[in-house]
Amino acid sequence: MPAFYAIALLIAFYALVAAEVLIPSGGILGLAAAVVAVTSIIIGTTYSVSMGMTLLLIYLITTPVLFVVIIRLWPKTRIGRKMLNRDTLQSDTTLPPPTTLDGTPLDELVGRVGIAVSNLLPSGQVKVDGHKTDAVSTGLPIDAQSRVMVVRVYGGKLQVRAAHPDEIEAERARVRTDTNAIEVPVSVVEPLSDRSPATGTSEATTSVVSPLDDVDFEVLEIETQPENTHGRSEAN
């Protein structure tokens, strides 16, 4: 019977250790597991010294292995996900991507060269492609009005570093290319053209509309005011 009790306490020890890792108990379950292990060794020793030494070796060998296995499996359990806040992190992936103050996604600015609006010590503000947003320096502090290269987006902010001269030149070349690629819009208002049948050329004509065009002076009657007639008779 003592051997049976010793083995039963060994199994209880494993259960208490697993419960201590999976369930936060403030060390109570761990203390109970230690008491159970010592009791199991004592009971095994009363049965035989060899059994007591065997149980001691089993505890010394299997306990670290048990801890490693449980620690690897613990983050995948429901309690482990809650304690590590992994459920919240997974739900954050459904949130909209971070943007600048004018609504431009920060991902579109990665790899671009901008300018530091304020000193990055390491946090500050930068302006990239005309978009102003918060940024963090990945290395040494960056002075204001310095050229910066956008490395990545992390924590809802741009991570930037000091831009190299070749990167600045490449950005200037890209801006010039984009500027040259802009097409001049065609005027919406086109002049009236009359194609001459003899020469086959078109001439632009301009029609000027005057407010007096609608007035018919032939039917317009001008009344002579009596005052003006009286004044003329006196002058004569």
TrEMBL record:
Entry keyword Nucleotide-binding: no
Keywords of the record: Membrane, Transmembrane, Transmembrane helix
Transcription in keyword set: no
Domain NfeD-like C-terminal: 107-161
Record localization: Membrane
Transmembrane segments: 29-49, 56-74
Stretches for region Disordered: 192-212
Biased composition (Polar residues): 196-209
Bilayer disposition of the protein: Multi-pass membrane protein
Pfam entry (one): NfeD
Protein name: Nodulation protein NfeD
Species: Aporhodopirellula aestuarii
